[in-house]
Amino acid sequence: MSAQIFLGLFTVNDDLAQSLQKILSNNHYDLRVFNSSDALWESVWDQTEQIDCLILHQCEGLEEMLTRLKQDGKLLPAVILTSANENQALVYHPAQKYLFLESLSDTSSAIDDAIRDFLQLTPDRKPQAEIEHINEFLTIKQHRLTEKLQERLGYKGVYYKRKPEDFFNNLSSEEKQELLTELTEEYRLILLEYFSNATEVNSRIDQFVTRAFFANLSVSHIMEIHMNLIEQFSQHLKLEGRSDEILLDYRLTLIDIVAHLCEMYRRSLPTKVTR
């Protein structure tokens, strides 16, 4: 797999395209320019796996393009280029980033931010669309980007792009409780489906571990979530007059998740670079 980041630029402004080609002219990026929404759409549809991030100039045809992408479940990291006086109400997905045309020199940082936030995008934050494969597509795309970043920079490349202000210990009491509540619900779904739907469960585990990783959540918090849910399940089974011995099997779930999370933390540790 190539470790280059493939970018799809949509603009009808040749000067803008040339400026971005100069700004992004390094071996990390491969920029492809599309001057029509139909051309970009065909590329996204036929070669989705080869486009890592979209750079979308806010011009005629963009709103229609975003609608088509959302309706067909084609979610990609995206940076929307706009002027300060233009409407910034276009919505592709919650992880999209806006960049003012007056700040084109910050394009590389905007791309990094767009990819980082996309990797944290979960199904509950995706745009509403009645497309059954959207969760699977989202997970595949996130995996592919993570592998590229790992190949180019190692996990530490993603690690250093985490925001310390988003770390669990730096959150307010309300934010901590909100995060734990959301993670508990995600973990509950993992437990309920762990022995029934491998594809769906693997997707949920990846999303859960990614959120925990970017929040710098400790293993002890994961264990606490697990034990609280198992206790709830145990009480429910006892009320129904059933044995709770089956819950012992769900230790495998905890081992699975903790192993994934610890591996991400291990690979995120800075290593000495040999010159």
TrEMBL record:
Origin species: Dactylococcopsis salina (strain PCC 8305)
Stated name of the protein: Circadian clock oscillator protein KaiA
GO biological process, one term: circadian rhythm
UniProt-listed SMART domains: KaiA (SM01247)
Keyword Ubl conjugation assigned: no
Residue ranges of every copy of the KaiA N-terminal domain listed in the record: 1-153
Alphabetic keyword roster: Biological rhythms
All copies of domain KaiA C-terminal, residue ranges: 163-271
Domain of life the protein comes from: Bacteria
InterPro entries given in the database record: CheY-like_superfamily, Circadian_clock_KaiA, Circadian_clock_KaiA_N, Circadian_clock_protein_KaiA_C, KaiA/RbsU_helical_domain_sf
PROSITE patterns for this protein: KAIA_C, KAIA_N
